[in-house]
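From the methods appendix. Each design record in this collection lists the tokenized structure first, followed by the designed amino acid sequence. Records were kept in a plain field format so they could be parsed without special tools. The example shown here is representative of the layout used throughout.

RECORD:
FOLD TOKENS (96 positions):
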């Protein structure tokens, strides 16, 4: 097996890596929190969250708080496992 076999293409962009990193240490994060922490634009963040959702690595919940819409994200069990595998692969690669 190659050193890069477990590196996951879904996490190769810094915004996706950031989204998953934030969600791994928090139960959830809403759109504005992710946007602020990552310094991303609305469109950029939306496209990367959609990509992670398509892979079923994150779960999206839409709700209203008062009269304002709120979108929040959390990791799925599959997403947590895939991200841990990805990080372990990066650590092994760097260790070599």
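DESIGN:
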């Amino acid at each position: 097996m190659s050193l890069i076999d477990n590196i996951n293409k879904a996490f190769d962009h810094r915004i996706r890596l950031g989204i998953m990193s934030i969600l791994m240490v928090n139960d959830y994060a809403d759109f504005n929190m992710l946007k602020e922490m990552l310094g991303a634009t609305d469109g950029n963040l939306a496209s990367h969250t959609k990509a992670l959702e398509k892979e079923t690595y994150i779960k999206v919940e839409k709700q209203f708080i008062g009269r304002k819409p709120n979108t929040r994200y959390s990791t799925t069990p599959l997403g947590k496992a895939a991200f841990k595998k990805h990080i372990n692969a990066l650590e092994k690669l760097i260790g070599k």
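APPENDIX NOTE: The chain has one domain: 8-85.
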